[in-house]
Amino acid sequence: MTATKEPAKPTLPVQELDRVTIRFAGDSGDGMQLTGGQFTRTTAVYGNDVSTLPDFPAEIRAPAGSLPGVSGFQISFASSDIHTPGDEPDVLVAMNPAALKANLIDLPRGGALIVNEDAFTAPNLKKVGYESNPLTDGSLAPYTVFAIPITALNARALAGLDMTTKQVDLTKNFFALGLMFWLYERSMEPTLRWIEEKFSARPVIAEANRRALKAGYAFGETTEMFHHRYEVRPATLPPGTYRNITGNEATALGFVAASRLAGRDIFYASYPITPASDILHQLSTYKHFGVRTFQAEDEIAAVGSAIGASYGGALGMTGTSGPGMALKSEALNLAVMVELPLVVIDVQRAGPSTGMPTKTEQADLLQAMFGRNSDSPIPIVAPATPAECFDYAIEAWRIAMRYMTPVVFLSDAFLANGAEPWAVPDVADLPTVGVPNHTDPATFQPYARDPETLARPWAVPGTPLLEHRIGGLEKQDITGNVSYDPENHHRMQMLRSAKVAGIVNDIPDLQVNGPADGDLLILGWGSTYGPIRSAVERLQADGKSVAHAHLRHLNPMPRNTGEVLSRYRRVLVPEVNLGQLLLLIRAKYLVPAEGLNLVRGKPFRISEIEDRANEMLTGIAR
Amino acid sequence: MSDGGDGELPVLTRKDFVSDQEVRWCPGCGDYSILAQTQKVMPDFGFPKENIVFISGIGCSGRLPYYMNTYGFHTIHGRAPTLATGLKAARPDLMVWVITGDGDALSIGGNHVLHSMRRNADIKLVMFNNRIYGLTKGQASPTSELGKRTKSSPDGTVDRPVSPLSIALAAEATFVARAVDTYTEHLQQTVERAGWHKGSAFVEVLQNCNIFNDGAFREFTDREVREDRMLVLEHGKPMIFGKDRDRGIRLNGLAPQVVTLGDRVAEEDLLVHDEEAEDPYLAFMLSRMWWPDFPVPVGVFRKVLHPTHDELLTGQIQAAVSQRGPGDLQKLLRGGETWVVP
Fold it and tell me: Which residues in chain B are closer than 8 Å to A472, comparing Cβ atoms?
């Protein structure tokens, strides 16, 4: 640890904990995401393993104090390796009655509840249907309640500053943050530095936030309310330089890395859509890396311009979420037909149509596989954790260029917004990706194929003597001329299919965590990695014969997938959808796998997977 | 291609731009003329032909890139401007043409025309307007006249048509022009001027579909009546038309008016065409004039110079590099707050 620690009152005992989960909850205007983000940064820099789950409404400012306006941020941090943001919070910080009402259900009995009692006014209580004040009616008896007049204490700390009451009130989240820093022995330094940078042009606001933070910290120190402070020691992660990273951040960095590795500039086109927009925002700050970003007029223009850029030899890509994927499908098929590299990022969100834009789901797998007219094979990769988004952004481009094909990169809202520590790689250790442009007229045919990969040449405009025409009409094999020949069409359909299927020779085998054979295999993909891994660790610790395998390549799947599935008596596939991978593996490998499917816009709890696994294990005749 | 030899630029001719593909439009189609004029003007730009790209959408016009011996991309319905914008943004060194039709550009692709024009993407869009869907065999298009009977409107359309050039002007296109397939020398000049323009060019070519909408423009484009019924716009010149050059357009209040030159009306009373006017009022007024109320204006309606999309984008990239230095990947990855686990 490099930051300085504030001295604690010597009398207060410090209790050491292995893992703590805190949920900050308040109005969407209360700055809960910022508060959670600051706590995460500080905790990551301190050296804990962390995992976060931001959970916010789609409404930017829902009516103040209302249930739909509640915004939450859960962080789990530990002195050991953890994989999820925690099933349930140990501590709930509720800034108003709505936050309490929406979140109390997740707080276990005995859990700590820190509330801003100033917000528990009669109108606020009435707004969310409390008939009496839960702080005084005894209904919170099962919990350890710390009712603190945060609004008033904070206002007192900021007295004398040239600010409106409303401005003062906006800083009370930092009071709560300061208190949590004190309670868990975190340094205020990283947040003080952040305030310094963020509000350098607004000294009064900077001073207000500093005072709020310090007042919260000092309150913890001086009040007699708390009987312990808690310490969660740094985790023993593998050696390296670490930073805290969200999935969307890692995705953007991965693309910049792919661009550098391939020696081709990025053209990133996107139409604003939750939860993918942050990738556009981030990439638009990397112009010194030659990154060209394009806010297109719609989803179709985004994919169309990306294809145009790839045609010109750039790394053309587009990012979106499910509804945008639906709009892009015709253009994706054009990329399939003209066999140009393209990466499409689908940060999946919940529900058909507009659904629940800020909530997570992994239900676009079949759309990515089949959501186009005719037989239209597209490779699919899916990172399992926020940090893995970096590796699979590079992998998506490796496949796209080597095989001259569009590739779908399936992320989701949980990966996109969730954060974890990331061991920053050395650039020298990154994989080799990229292919040269074709320039030799003597060997050029637009649809001649590399015998190993079946990829056609990437011949970009500006190359002398390679002038040729491509398009969405069926191509004659080799020449690429328009062809309606029946046998040629059959051959081209088979070639396109074989090209994508052949990627199987170029991807790693499916790894198993646990016994090589046994009673139960839990197979997952995407962001279910954390809860599955944690559940399997618990089951294995109980002596159960359970293994975990996680697919990162969904199309094609690794060569040994069927064989791995066959080595276990039962197979469980937990998915935040109604059984999409399940359908694919049942169809492909003829295994009687079973699904665990919960679609609530939230990740699985570890216990849900554990319980289902135990049920299945009980049912196995030994 | 004829090679000029060592040290000399090769001199290209029309033939260099003719591909080996058999042209498959209906015999008598106006598209042949547009193709021929396009091939003819290409050598004039002095551009290496490998740096020229033709991008098309769907419809009869969409086939044109196959017949050009340049780089070509026959894309999907309505989306050609999006591919062209992306290509030009990634590759400012290329000359990018978009070939489209009235259905492709104004119906399914209307949004992309609007945005590629307002961004001033440096692409030259040539829209073949035959006022019908030809490739799908004769349905009404967004430029079909109200009440037109087609296969999809046996009792006459109930949709009002749009004026393509009014739309291009409203979309802030920096070059707006109209030509006619059978008025070949004028067509050639117009395509050439579009090619020289730096910025978003929108050229409407009135094109006859002799199968599904024969004679759509005959009333004013036929050789015998052309001079009396079309107004050829020339920058800086008064708007005069007619076989005897005796009629003109003057402004009456806010509306154009056809007048006969003579005792009471002199040339000085006529509107003078100004294609370089920054405000689009005159050009917009011209875009509303149509036979039989007015002679149909052809030529360049508007030609103004604004920074192009790719220039602005490239400028931002260059500014970022000069301010921050070329990106250092390792530094980027190690950015933000880090900690070391020993």
Answer: 74-76
Residues facing residue A419 across a β-bridge: A246
ipTM over 0.85: yes
pLDDT at A121 over 70: yes
Task: Note whether A297 contacts B114, CB cutoff 8 Å.
Answer: yes
Show the domain range for A364: 243-429
Q: Do B330 and A309 touch (CB under 8 A)?
A: no
pLDDT digits (tens, 9 = 90+) for A289-332: 999 999 999 999 999 999 999 999 999 999 999 999 999 999 99
> Which CATH number do you get for residue A421?
3.40.50.970
Q: How far apart are CA A481 and CA A463, in angstroms?
A: 19
Asked whether residue B1 carries a pLDDT value surpassing 80, the answer given is: no
Q: State residue B7's pLDDT score.
A: 54
What are residue B302's DSSP bridge partners? B176
Percent of chain A with pLDDT over 90: 93
Domains identified in chain A, total number:
3
Residue of A nearest to B88 (CA): A309
- Say what angle helices A172-183 and A189-198 make with each other, to 10 degrees: 160
Both A39 and A106 in one domain: the answer is: yes
Distance between CA atoms of residues B294 and B231, nearest Å: 9
Q: What is the pLDDT of residue B5?
A: 45
Are B236 and B274 spatial neighbours (Cβ–Cβ below 8 Å)? yes
Task: Summarize pLDDT for A155-198 with one digit per residue, the tens.
Answer: 999 999 999 999 999 999 999 999 999 999 999 999 999 999 99
Q: Are A220 and A268 members of one domain?
A: no
Domain-wise residue ranges, chain B: 14-216+307-321
Cα(A28)–Cα(A33) distance, integer angstroms: 8
Query: A217 and A255: one domain?
Result: no
User: How far B314 CA lies from chain A's nearest CA (Å)?
Assistant: 8
Please report which helix (H) or strand (E) contains residue B71, including its range.
strand B71-74
Residue of B nearest to A459 (CA): B71
CATH class, B14-216+307-321 region: alpha beta
* A residues 562-581 closer than 8 Å to B (CB): none
Task: Using DSSP bridges, classify how beta strands B247-252 and B255-260 pair: parallel, antiparallel or unpaired.
Answer: antiparallel
First to last CA, chain A: 51
In a mutagenesis test of the A interface, which of B310, B338, B340 is the best target, namely the one with the most A β-carbons within 10 Å? B338
Sign of CA dihedral B227, B228, B231, B236: positive
Are A88 and A218 part of one and the same domain?
yes
Q: Which residues contact A438 (CB under 8 A, 6 or more apart)?
A: A444, A457, A458, A459, A463, A466
Q: Which residue of chain B has the CA closest to A480?
A: B66
Residue A198 covered by a domain: yes
End-to-end CA gap in chain B: 66
Please report whether residue A329 resides in a domain: yes
CB contact under 8 A, A239 and B341: yes
Answer with the one of A429, A461, A477 that is the final residue of a domain: A429
For A470-526, what is each residue's pLDDT tens digit? 999 999 999 999 999 999 999 999 999 999 999 999 999 999 999 999 999 999 999
Domain boundary among A205, A231, A257: A231
Tell if the CB–CB gap between B49 and A190 is shorter than 8 Å.
no
Shared-domain flag, residues A217 and A258: no
- Same-domain pairing of A396 and A365: yes
In chain A, the residue whose alpha carbon lies closest to the alpha carbon of B89 is A309
Based on the fold, state whether residues A165 and A276 are members of the same structural domain.
Answer: no
Q: Please indicate, yes or no, whether residues A99 and A222 belong to a single structural domain of this protein.
A: yes
Q: Is A315 on the interface with B (CB under 8 A)?
A: no
Query: For the domain that residue A596 is a member of, what is the CATH number?
Result: 3.40.50.920
Tell me whether residue A491 is in a domain.
no
Residues 6 or more apart whose CB falls under 8 angstroms from that of A443 comprise none
Contacts of B339 in chain A (CB under 8 A): 1-2, 44-47, 241-243
Q: Is the pLDDT of residue B291 over 80?
A: yes
Which CATH number characterizes residue A104's domain? 3.40.920.10
pLDDT digits (tens, 9 = 90+) for A48-70: 999 999 998 888 778 888 999 99
Instruction: Tell me how close the Cα of A595 comes to any Cα of chain B, in angstroms.
Output: 38
